[in-house]
Specification:
The chain has helices at residues 2-18, 45-52, 70-83, 95-108, 133-141, 189-207, and strands at 21-23, 34-38, 57-62, 85-88, 112-114, 127-128, 144-151, 170-173, 211-212. It is α/β, with parallel strands linked by helices and 224 residues long.
């Protein structure tokens, strides 16, 4: 019931309240496996995708969010599941593989899955080099990739604010990218890099951000 509540009740309510400018949503295939590849501007980007894609979309979520005790824990787990989060363990050597496997299960079942190629939020507003996980998934499953540009989401919840406020948000869904020409080459690092770069260029064209050809690092991370 919760996914239906999110899609048909909470979704329209959120769109009416925040009035995002949604463009190109018809580019998302109505059926079949599809990967959404958005830029990442703010913590609430996942919610924005959930409420504007007009199709159920799955995301990765930390497993500990789903393991709370008592009624509150169960309600939180149910709500996150309704939003489309798929629990995965993090913080160990197998975390990356587990995340890709969880995503692949969704795509193999004909679902829609969203992954942020940059891997983390952009703290400087620029678009950073993409990690190749998105390419690995597209090549392994045959899913088409829809590039997504988010703009203004960083203004939804300024630092120190608990309740999202209205902000001018634009969500642009680009035309699907088909990488079937690389069928059978999903194990090639060079092909994965090429596909990822093509996806990032499509996001860049939609977002108009400045591009940085290096992975984004948090301020407390080393430059290694």
């Amino acid at each position: 019931m919760l996914p239906l509540l999110v899609r048909f009740v909470l979704g329209p309510l959120v769109r009416a309240l925040y009035r995002p400018d949604i463009r190109g949503v018809e580019n998302i295939p109505a059926t079949g496996p599809v990967l959404l590849a958005p830029n990442h501007r703010a913590a609430l980007d996942t919610g924005v995708i959930t409420f504007t894609a007009m199709r159920p979309v799955k995301f990765l979520g930390k497993a500990e969010y789903f393991t709370g005790s008592g009624l509150r824990g169960k309600m939180m787990a149910g709500f996150l599941g309704g939003l489309g989060y798929v629990p995965v363990e993090r913080g160990n050597a197998q975390a990356g593989l587990a995340a890709l496997e969880a995503a692949r299960k969704v795509l193999d079942a004909g679902g829609a899955f969203a992954i942020y190629p940059e891997g983390t939020r952009s703290l400087d507003g620029r678009l950073h080099r993409g990690h190749t996980g998105v390419a690995a998934l597209a090549l392994a499953t045959g899913a088409k990739v829809v590039p997504v540009a988010l703009s203004g989401t960083e203004g939804l919840q300024p630092e120190g604010k608990r309740i999202p406020r209205r902000a001018k948000i634009t969500v642009t869904y680009g035309e699907p990218l088909d990488f079937s020409r690389y069928e059978g080459q999903d194990s090639s690092p060079a092909i994965r890099r090429s596909v990822t770069d093509e996806i990032m260029y499509a996001i860049l064209e939609l977002s108009g951000q400045e591009y940085v050809d290096s992975y984004h690092k948090r301020p407390d991370q080393s430059a290694a």
